[in-house]
């Protein structure tokens, strides 16, 4: 088992995996880490779909063209979930407020699922596994993914997590400097200094992409990320959320 410092500071995204299975005791450890995740109100407004079925992984790969979905040993899909409490309330005869019609409910479910996924990432990394977060599962074709996973109303995909025995050991990507991440007591209003530091980071990322092991690119950080934003402008997530029972009006 890796120590905390190694687990947190040497994590990389792994997209290529060996064929061998993850030991059941390792998956049990990951499950327990997920279950112990802190959540809003202790409401535990999330669920996880653990996919080992190769055909289903292949179908999700066909949608996303993300190779790690078909080569990973296990794919964990983290979902926001208000179905569970609604079903229990129904049995107990409690009225359920239309909480899923609020933006706060959407945020709570996403935060809970994201925290649970990070618990899984840390546990997997500590156990020597490789992992990769796949956000495209949320946006590529939400209705089709919901159909494949048989999601009931009140449940929607937040992110996928591919897990497996790593076949590769990618270089550690540079992250933004502390000066652009951390603020003391209030948000730093010195935009000139902020942009100077971000520009240096942008150049660092470009150099990393030019010299990294494996496939190299000419990508910087700023325009590359903006490219994702431009692509995402075509997503219809609000329509999908309404189909899943989140008629957001405030």
Give your account of this protein's structure:
The protein is an alpha+beta fold. It has twelve helices and four strands; from the N terminus they run ααβααβααβααβαααα. The chain has helices spanning 4-9, 24-35, 54-64, 68-71, 83-92, 103-126, 136-139, 142-149, 178-181, 191-211, 222-232, 237-243; strands at residues 46-51, 74-81, 130-134, 155-164. The chain has a four-stranded antiparallel β-sheet with strand order 1-2-4-3, sandwiched between helices. Helix 2 (24-35) packs antiparallel against helix 6. The longest helix is centred in the middle third of the chain and has 24 residues, at 103-126. It is globular, with a radius of gyration of 20 Å. The mean pLDDT is 96.
Order of helices and strands: HHEHHEHHEHHEHHHH
* Largest sheet report: 4 strands, antiparallel
Q: What is the CA-atom radius of gyration, in angstroms? A: 20 Å
Mean pLDDT: 96
Please count the beta strands (DSSP E, at least 2 residues each).
Answer: 4
- Percent of residues in helices: 40-55%
- Tell me the distance between the termini: 45 Å
The amount of beta strand, in percent, is: 5-15%
Number of helical segments with 4 or more residues: 12
Low-confidence stretches: none
């Amino acid at each position: 088992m890796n120590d905390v410092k190694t687990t947190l500071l040497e994590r990389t995204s792994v997209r290529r995996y060996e064929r061998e299975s993850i030991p059941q005791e390792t998956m049990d450890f990951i499950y327990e880490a997920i279950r112990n995740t802190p959540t809003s109100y202790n409401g535990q407004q999330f669920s996880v779909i653990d996919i080992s079925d190769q055909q289903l992984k292949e179908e999700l790969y066909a949608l996303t063209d993300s190779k790690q979905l078909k080569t990973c040993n296990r794919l964990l899909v983290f979902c926001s979930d208000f179905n569970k409490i609604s079903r229990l309330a129904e049995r107990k005869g409690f009225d359920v407020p239309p909480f899923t019609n609020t933006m706060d409910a959407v945020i709570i479910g996403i935060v809970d699922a994201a925290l649970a996924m990070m618990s899984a990432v840390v546990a997997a990394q500590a156990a020597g596994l490789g992992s990769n977060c796949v956000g495209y599962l949320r946006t590529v074709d939400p209705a089709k993914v919901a159909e494949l996973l048989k999601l009931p109303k009140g449940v929607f995909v937040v992110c996928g997590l591919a897990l497996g025995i790593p076949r590769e050991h990618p270089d550690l990507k540079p992250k933004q400097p502390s000066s652009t991440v951390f603020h003391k007591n209030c948000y730093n209003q010195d935009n000139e200094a902020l942009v100077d530091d971000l520009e240096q980071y942008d150049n660092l990322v470009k150099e990393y992409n030019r010299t990294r092991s494996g496939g190299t690119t000419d990508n910087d950080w700023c325009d590359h990320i903006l490219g994702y934003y431009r692509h995402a402008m075509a997503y219809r997530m609000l329509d999908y959320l309404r189909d899943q029972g989140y008629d957001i009006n405030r």
